[in-house]
């Protein structure tokens, strides 16, 4: 079965509401080109406003979810997954059990502290994970990057689109399908759409699902408005992303 036939069986450019393990189990194997996701860190997080994240204190989902992400990812492709450093052993065990091979580690510098104890916590981290032997990127990214503050308006651990766009560009091609099984506020999906990729998000929490869906509708409207401009090219590219960043609307879109 060729790639086009497989992807015709999938919902594309949508956020699905439900359990990602169940949703991915219904997807064909080897059906997505790139996975970019920020799963619960297993730390029972609660922000200053009292917002929480489902399954953030229960690790029973971790191995089944990682097994499904590995299954649906195409051969010789990669996934980037954020994780909580205090639970790195659990995440590593789940990734290795699924079949992933760690091939890189990313650190995202923040200008603010999310928490202070023995140290001030001023970074996020993610592993680059391979299925098979993916080709090397033409212009490898630095493994330390800046992560601007997203404002966390839509989700308590909302990642800024500006930090995700380079990842999407480096490890996928225009027209590829990007999966985020823990979609949250939809940042990965927005980064995919703004760089001319297709996306598929899955979110369990009803409130965050609504936020992500509304956000992606706003992103689509903004892209459509830009495309309708006679001075703007039909393909989504740097100009659209730069325009959104300049307008400071990527976090609220």
Give me a quick take on this structure.
The protein has 253 residues and is an alpha/beta fold. It is built from 8 helices and 10 strands. The strands form 2 sheets. The protein has an 8-stranded mixed sheet. The protein has a two-stranded antiparallel sheet with strand order 5-6.
Topology:
Elements: H1 3-8, E1 14-17, H2 20-25, E2 32-37, H3 62-72, E3 73-82, H4 88-98, E4 101-109, E5 115-116, E6 120-121, E7 123-131, E8 144-146, H5 161-171, E9 177-180, H6 187-194, E10 198-203, H7 206-228, H8 238-246
Parallel strand pairs: 1-10, 2-3, 2-9, 4-8, 9-10
Antiparallel strand pairs: 3-7, 4-7, 5-6
Describe this structure in words.
With 253 residues, the protein is an alpha/beta fold. It has one domain: 3-Layer(aba) Sandwich (Rossmann fold). The protein contains 8 helices and 10 strands. The strands form 2 sheets. It has an 8-stranded mixed sheet. The protein has a two-stranded antiparallel ribbon with strand order 5-6. Strand 2, helix 3 and strand 3 form a beta-alpha-beta unit. Helix 3 crosses helix 4 and helix 5 packs across helix 6. It is globular and about 50 Å long. The model has no long low-confidence stretch (mean pLDDT 88).
């Amino acid at each position: 079965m060729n790639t086009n036939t497989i992807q015709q069986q999938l919902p594309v450019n949508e956020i699905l509401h439900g359990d990602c393990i169940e949703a991915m189990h219904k997807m064909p194997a080897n059906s997505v080109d790139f996975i970019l996701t920020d799963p619960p860190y297993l730390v029972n997080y609660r922000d200053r406003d009292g917002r929480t994240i489902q399954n953030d204190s229960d690790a029973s989902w971790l191995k089944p979810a990682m097994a499904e992400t590995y299954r649906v990812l195409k051969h010789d492709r990669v996934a980037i997954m954020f994780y909580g450093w205090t639970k790195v052993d659990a995440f590593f065990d789940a990734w290795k059990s699924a079949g992933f091979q760690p091939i890189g580690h990313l650190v995202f510098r923040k200008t603010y502290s999310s928490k202070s104890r023995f140290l001030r916590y001023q970074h996020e981290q993610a592993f680059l994970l391979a299925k098979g032997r993916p080709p090397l990127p033409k212009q490898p990214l630095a493994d330390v990057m800046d992560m601007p503050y997203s404002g966390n308006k839509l989700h308590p651990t909302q990642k800024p689109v500006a930090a995700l766009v380079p990842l999407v560009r480096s490890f996928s091609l225009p027209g590829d399908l990007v999966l985020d099984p823990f979609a949250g506020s939809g940042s990965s999906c927005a980064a995919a759409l703004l760089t001319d990729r297709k996306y598929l998000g899955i979110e369990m929490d009803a409130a965050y699902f609504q936020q992500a869906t509304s956000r992606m509708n706003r992103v689509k409207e903004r892209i459509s408005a830009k495309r309708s401009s006679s001075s703007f090219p039909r393909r989504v590219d740097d100009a659209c992303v730069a325009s959104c960043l300049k307008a400071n609307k990527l976090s609220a879109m």
